Amino acid sequence: MNIRAIPPTIFAIALSAVSVTAADAWANPNLEELAGELAALKAEVTTLRQEAQAATDYVAIANLQASYGYYVDKMRWDEAADLFTKTATLEIAGRGVFAGQDRIRTYLHALGELTYGTLFNHMQLQPVIHIGNDGVTASARWRTLMQVGHLGEEARWGEGTYENEYVKEDGIWKINKLHSYITFYVEYDKGWNKGAVPLPKHLDNLEPDAEATVKYGAFPDVFVPPYHYKNPVTGQ
Amino acid sequence: MNIRAIPPTIFAIALSAVSVTAADAWANPNLEELAGELAALKAEVTTLRQEAQAATDYVAIANLQASYGYYVDKMRWDEAADLFTKTATLEIAGRGVFAGQDRIRTYLHALGELTYGTLFNHMQLQPVIHIGNDGVTASARWRTLMQVGHLGEEARWGEGTYENEYVKEDGIWKINKLHSYITFYVEYDKGWNKGAVPLPKHLDNLEPDAEATVKYGAFPDVFVPPYHYKNPVTGQ
Amino acid sequence: MNIRAIPPTIFAIALSAVSVTAADAWANPNLEELAGELAALKAEVTTLRQEAQAATDYVAIANLQASYGYYVDKMRWDEAADLFTKTATLEIAGRGVFAGQDRIRTYLHALGELTYGTLFNHMQLQPVIHIGNDGVTASARWRTLMQVGHLGEEARWGEGTYENEYVKEDGIWKINKLHSYITFYVEYDKGWNKGAVPLPKHLDNLEPDAEATVKYGAFPDVFVPPYHYKNPVTGQ
User: Among partner residues A3, A159, A221, which is closest to B8 by beta-carbon distance?
Assistant: First the structure.
């Protein structure tokens, strides 16, 4: 093709077309649109990532606390203690505060061993779990229904509310604070209209690191364990 | 550079190259591919959004109903009533239907106050939760294990099945219908082989807005509360 | 416009500009960037898909096992049997192994019918659910709290641990293995300090396909049902 053979106007139109096309490619509506759509999608995926992560965290924490319960049932104390952070605290009934995983382990072992005739069920029920906005802290309310006792000795029903805290360390959720408030503790033979077993106090064989942070009585006293969350509808 | 100095063929090749390049940019396989991939990804993210939203809704509803239970345990009636929509209905045992949040609040307060010696535990257990395709309605079956009574008076075990409905208003899940069918209600001292407490009827101090929608008897009668869902495997 | 009228240098600059623009579009940093961002986003969405899918699967399995419990409560045996795969196994207490959905159905029907005065509650509680990396298998530990008996005859509390397996067939989760270890089984009138009902043995009216895979005693014996999972924190 000889450029001189191109009629000037046609050449100009062709050049113009090329220019427009190239300009379109530079500021191409498709490319710009794509970039815009991609940015919007990235933002949406970021939101989704948080939602999916929160759902994953919910499952992890539900599994964690349920696992704690299954270990406690069978007095697998080392397994249970391993679920806590090194700096965790544990406070159950009126037995005071045990600070740090080592002390929590000591406390748990002080509860005894699973031997013939022992029943020590601590069902972990009714979770209200909230993942923190930081994605590495969480709080949960749970309750435990307890069936405890020993053949030829006592048999008791008990119930308690947990307000627990969790942290995610190196991608793994751990219990950072376990606080169990006893609601009732009664003799199996009596039920809850003929008196109750008092709130358990200090263990005979182990003093706590600090006294109980909240003073309250179990049934027949009534007490509302504090909620870590606001009313889910009113936010108050 | 003088255009006249460009050998025509070279110029033509250059122009052709420019044209091809620009045309490629316009109908560039990469750009088209990208656009196609982006469209596919957008579709996938839409599906993911629904899945993640459903998981988030599941958690919200589980937390909501569990919160309801913790409020009921402690007779925090205003907190509990606030969890319902303005037009919700509540029907428990044989006490009839209470329609609207105000009447639900009145009903709940009519159940009494938490005083020394009262036990009123209503554990919220075993959810089967389905989020509607519209994303703003949901249904759930739950059960409650009840430990109720008063020191020096009665002590009772009870159990019931809920078939509840929820709606999402302004991004917040609320209870729109609560229907509790009592399975059994027995004196602690007797258990469930020596008779049972009859299905609770109208409150002494409050008439319902409508009679019970379903007539049934609690243990020793047997009754299968209707399921809001089909068999999860057969779909029937 | 007459090309001959374009001053040569300006034309050359224009052509050069067009060439650069077109070349940029071909190897345009924006396009390349977009492609890179899209690839990264696709990878992230793939991860999200797995997370969202796992959350969806968690909900499906929780609903499935809870549904099983509601059917068992009311002795809806066909509904319950339909939740199993064709090749599933079922093993409860000391009654041996039943292999295949048909035999599971036969076993369930052999447990009797829901008639006036029957209580057969099997609450499904405290799940620890793990979805396999393949996305089509899962394992879960659950526990059941049982309230069983018959008016004028026996009344019993019982508790057991399940270690179950699930598979996803054609997009639907089903129970592939149900293994229930009884923890305790006691007369309501006695509680758990005056002896216990022995671990249920073979049904009177139905021999199993194989003997129990695990020999153990219920309370007052103590036994730790094997865990399908490692310690969630230590991984051991």
Answer: A3
